Amino acid sequence: MRALTLLGSLLAALLLASAAPASAHAALRGSDPADGAVLKSSPASVTLTFTEAVGLLDDSFRVYDPTNHRVDTSGAGHGPAGSDTARITFPKKLGTGTFTVAWRVVSADSHPVSGALTFSVGKPSATAATVSAGPVENPLTGSLYNIGRYVAYLAMALLTGTVAFLAVCRPPDPAPLRTPVRTAWWTLLAATLFLFVLRSPYEEGTSPATAFDLSALARSASGRPGLALLARVALLALTAALHLLLRKRVRRDLPSSPSRPLLAAAAALSVALALTWAAAEHASAGIQVPLAMTSSVLHLLSMALWMGGLAALLITLQRSAVPLPAAVVTRFSRTAFGAVTVLVVTGVYQSWRGLGSWQALTDTSYGRLLLVKLAGVTLLLAAASQSRRWTARLAQAPAVPAPERVPLPVGAGPADPPAERQDAPRPDEPPATPDEPGATPDAPGSTPNEPGATPKQPGATPVGRHQAALRRSVLAEVAVGVAVLGITTILTGTLPGRAAAEAAGSGTAPAASAGIPAAVVALVPFDVGTPNGHGKVQITLDPGRVGANSVQAVVFGPDGGISAVPELRLSFTLAAQKIGPLPANVTDRGGYWAADSVNLPIAGEWTMSVTVRVSDLDQVTVTKKVRIAA
Description:
The two termini are 57 Å apart. 42% of the residues lie in helices and 20% in strands. It is α+β, with helices and mostly antiparallel strands. The radius of gyration is 33 Å and the shape is globular.
């Protein structure tokens, strides 16, 4: 279990270390006006068309004129063609020159998408506004959200698989599985609430500190992903109520095995929980949505039955107070075989639906990740095959009865011989010696049933050896499964190959690789000259151009982790024009420092001065050159 915990922690660290923006799932199929178009007259509106339905944010569109001033527009809405379009209108005619449109929407499978395009009225300008594609993707928010999704997958698998193991396999000692069930329930509830709170910052690309704003929570509750998370919380409450009902039955001395109505209710709740994932991910958008959602639910439940059941079997083999009957392992083996069959069928369908072509298997990030997942699944099936071999040997091994306890007659003293047993040697039969077949090399003068006899170790019997080997193979199977689940989490955050091919076929690059210049990001090293008094400050200027800019600063310690410092000061100087220093007035916002507006009036190479205080006495000031565009 320590090894599995370490593996899960490493995968979580991998997700946290990924600072790249989340891959978009909806790709821009086209726009009206088209990107780079030169129009004779001012357009009345701008319409974007995507490969799937999209949701709109409060600031989904920003339009800038050739002088980098924002143009007044209407609120964003869907176009006449449906929910896969986004549209804004202009209240008055635009002037001449090149206009830049930056956009940010949320794809139907819950992931944010951003990009930018330009069009010109009359003729292109000599210079055009250069803006970021939207709010900079906050790496901490994206990483935390991905970790929350991974933990939710693990908790779902453990909760559903363990309950199914108890109901179907019926182990003689269910006590070791009570704690995993409770832990999985609380973990899934905490991960779901965590994802709901982070939903709005994740969509808008802002920091985690903005999550607790009431308006942000309201926005989270209004979108389909947020509603799916709230539905999951309600279903977990129903699951807890069902658990309390079962406990009442046990306390009233009713049959401990659940009745058919309770089993049906538990199955219905499991299906409903799986639907909360299918309704907000890949299956909810694209082609064949009803079939895809059905396949997604079956895929998730099969994964939970297999992986969660494996964890339950491993815990039972390790901690059960009584030997595990071979029938329990055999029943799980049959259940796991059925789950693997469903996994293979639904996995093939979902791979075809996501890829769209064989070429996408090697030409897209989605396809390459899918190949890695398939390699992991192959290892998983090999481990499962080994487990099935040990299960078959365990089922065929003869049961070893527990040693008998021979009661002494009432009043018998220590010197009295025990009562004669049917299998005791007759007086005329010499006792067996270690050299004879079937003899047991016990201590001289003792028999297996005498107080001085040495009992056999459980591992010395065929059943004990088979259970120990099965435990090792199941542990390997669970370890590989945890890794495959981490790859699956990353895969669900990657643009499907079919969408990428569709966008490329229409001549529009995917939004994630639109090539729009991002905000200015500078990494400033510092060292106050004391032990552990060094690190780096990552400073982000958005949009990194003339005018108002927002500033975010994150301090990293010597180990590369986020570090809290008592004070951080930031200012900007343009020596060529004798401007500055202009203080940024950043404030501590819980894990990072920020200022909502810093006005940099002229383009050029500015000197950024950063003062970091790490203690009451130790501080240092360092500088860094940054270029501010026009």
